[in-house]
Amino acid sequence: MNLDKILGIKYPIIQGGMANITDGKFAATVSEAGALGVIGAASMNGERLRREIRICKSLTQKPFAVNLMLLNPYTEEMAKIVIEEEVPIVITGAGNPSKYVDDWHKAKIKIFPVVANPTLAIRLEKQGVDGIIAEGNEAGGHIGEMTSMTLILQTCDKVKIPVIAAGGIASGKQMLAAEVLGACGVQIGTLFLGSEECPIHSNYKDLLVNSRYNKVTVIGRTAGLPIRLLRNDMTNNYLREEKAGKDKMELEHYTLGAMKKAVESGDLVNGSFMAGLTVTQIEDIKPVKEILDTLMEEYHQEIEKIHAKF
Q1: What local confidence, expressed as pLDDT, does residue 205 receive?
Q2: N or C: which end of the chain has fewer CB within 10 A?
Q3: What is the value of pTM for the model shown?
Q4: Running DSSP on this structure, what letter comes out for residue 182?
Q5: What is the residue-wise DSSP string for 139-172?
Q6: What gap in Å lies between CA 285 and CA 144, rounded to an integer?
Q7: What dotted CATH number matches 3-195?
């Protein structure tokens, strides 16, 4: 894997940007530990984003990124802010970043869109982005339809720019598997939720550590916006009403403000506790540095095991 060389970081790992969670302080912590810290700007306005960028820059001199969800009503303002604040890397989702590519490149910003299918990756390569984050549906939060195994392989086969694997990665073995499929690095989200420094409620962390396979579910398929998260009363009610044929507006009654309830107050009944399928690999809460060092140690151990077989 050579994402570390491409981005000027120690490890070929990007921390997934997560709305309401990965702020400037947390992104700086990840960058200081050797990966690429990412500020999740989806729930922010321009003023808040600028503040978080400055916090991050005050805490680290190492590269970091901002994740922009292009459906955010403040996107036009944010697109200028990342230039003004000299953000080195922008990761985009929920839209096509082509209208910003020229301006961002003039500001020496590297651009990495998140995609859920190879067709979009091909189109974005033609529009001049610097790399692709191919995220399979094992990921937490908003997901597509393709699994990581198929998406990463097909994307790597179709484009010549760097491809970063995402979705279902939380160990050195999974990192190596992604590399075999052609990825130059990985993006990891769920595993970082289980870090000491992650600014989420203790109830959220307790759920992560105690989760089982049957505790992860997907809501929102009928509305065309599937979300993977941990099962609770909110998801059970949503799925019941979704099955009954309730429309999108009626279903939003359950999800509006639910993420904030999970992150800030740890509301076990009404909160939206987003997590991917790797949640069962979180056995305890550890410092970010230990998580990263363990990942890389496992990765190198797996390479050595393969070499020993041949």
Answers
A1: 97
A2: C
A3: 0.93
A4: T
A5: SSEE--SS-HHHHHHHHHHH-SS-EEEESS--SH
A6: 29
A7: 3.20.20.70
